[in-house]
Amino acid sequence: RKEVEQDPGPFNVPEGATVAFNCTYSNSASQSFFWYRQDCRKEPKLLMSVYSSGNEDGRFTAQLNRASQYISLLIRDSKLSDSATYLCVVNREAGTALIFGKGTTLSVSS
Amino acid sequence: GAGVSQSPSNKVTEKGKDVELRCDPISGHTALYWYRQRLGQGLEFLIYFQGNSAPDKSGLPSDRFSAERTGESVSTLTIQRTQQEDSAVYLCASSLNPLAVSTDTQYFGPGTRLTVL
């Protein structure tokens, strides 16, 4: 089983749609969880950290379920500029490298 | 403040040549990471530095790959006798304090695109 698994998509949605991405991780000892965004031929950029209590940043909501080892990202009112690859990222333990999922590609059309 | 910078941004080399890739982390960040991303693929971890030491080199694909960090700042990734399969974007990231959950977020540089002919 891969350490971090994501549905690769692509997800093709119209502007204004709500879209949800899911991610599972295999190591129950993982401590830090993130969603990164990567635009074509660009470096990954932090979108948001994911906390146990769930967190929201504008149109973006992230949830963590430690019992199920599951992370989600919800994007409401999708914009054209949201088109990118969304990477689910887990840090096995403090002081180690990030483990990246392969990413989920989102394409928002007008 | 300045982010993570990498140089060169693009490097084209011939098979068999050695290349050096440079990373300047965010000032004050104690940890530095190298990753590789082949075209259309996910990110692969290569090596991690805490200060000038490398506690985790597990991702280096062969002994042709080496890296060093000096002054708890700049890092150089060296690939000897390059092969065509080394062609990829090499990304560097740094984090403030990887030993605390609240400060272990990694910030990436723009990458070096390496093409081996």
Please explain how this structure is put together.
The complex is a heterodimer of chains A (110) and B (117). In chain A, 0% of the residues lie in helices and 53% in strands. Chain A is an all-beta fold. In chain A, strands 2, 4, 5, 9, 10 and 11 form a six-stranded mixed sheet that branches. Chain A has a five-stranded antiparallel sheet with strand order 1-3-8-7-6, with no helix packed on it. In chain B, the strands form two sheets. In chain B, strands 2, 4, 5, 6, 9, 10 and 11 form a seven-stranded mixed sheet that branches. A four-stranded antiparallel sheet of chain B has the order 1-3-8-7, with no helix packed on it. The mean pLDDT of chain B is 92. Chain B contains no helices and eleven strands. By secondary structure, chain B is an all-beta fold. The chains are: A mainly beta (110), B mainly beta (117). At the A-B interface, strand 5 and strand 10 of A face strand 4, strand 5 and strand 10 of B.
List the helices and strands and how they pair.
The complex is a heterodimer of chains A (110) and B (117).
Chain A: E1 4-6, E2 11-14, E3 19-25, E4 32-38, E5 45-49, E6 55-57, E7 60-65, E8 70-75, E9 84-91, E10 98-100, E11 104-109
Parallel strand pairs in A: 2-11
Antiparallel strand pairs in A: 1-3, 3-8, 4-5, 4-9, 6-7, 7-8, 9-10, 9-11
Chain B: E1 5-7, E2 10-13, E3 19-24, E4 31-37, E5 43-50, E6 53-56, E7 65-69, E8 75-79, E9 88-95, E10 107-108, E11 112-116
Q: Which descriptor suits the 3D outline of chain B?
A: globular
The number of helical elements of chain B comes to 0
Give the end-to-end Cα distance of chain B, rounded to a whole number of Å: 37 Å
Question: Measured on Cα atoms, how large is the radius of gyration of chain B?
Answer: 14 Å
Which series of helices and strands of chain A comes N to C? EEEEEEEEEEE
Question: Residue share in helices of chain A?
Answer: under 10%
* Biggest sheet record of chain B: 7 strands, mixed
Regarding quaternary structure, what we see is heterodimer
The radius of gyration of chain A is: 13 Å
Q: How would you sum up the global shape of chain A?
A: globular
> What are the segments of chain A in which pLDDT stays under 50 over at least 5 consecutive residues?
none
Q: What is the number of E strands of chain B? A: 11
What would the average pLDDT of chain A be, to the nearest integer? 91
Q: How many beta-strand runs of chain A?
A: 11
